[in-house]
Amino acid sequence: MSKTIVTLVGKDHVGIIAAVCNFFADNNINILDIKQTTVGDYINMMMIVDTDKYEKTFAELTEGLGTVGEKVGCLIQAQHEDIFNMMHRI
Question: What φ, ψ does residue 29 adopt, rounded to 5°?
Fold first, then answer.
């Protein structure tokens, strides 16, 4: 299984999660775990997704998520699980 960590930060409003989930569904990406926190008017979301069935490159994934982020007014970033783990290793 190829896991990717996706983070989203921005001002909360209706439709953010729907837009991200639609992007994942359209690209055969399965959400394995999701954590969302809202503080005041802001949303912070972290997702672990399975990209095994995603047929494009990782660069296209990050570009696509960036486009979704622009549409909903949030910053959306993706990292390979291995890189994420190495960056946060003590």
Answer: -105, 125
Cβ atoms within 10 Å, residue 86: 10
Where residue 57 sits, what CATH number does that domain have? 3.30.70.260
CA distance 47 to 45: 7
CA atoms within a 13 Å half-sphere pointing along the CA-CB vector of 70: 6
What confidence tens digit (pLDDT) does each residue in 9-55 have? 999 999 999 999 999 999 999 999 999 999 999 999 999 999 999 99
Domain that holds residue 69: 3-87
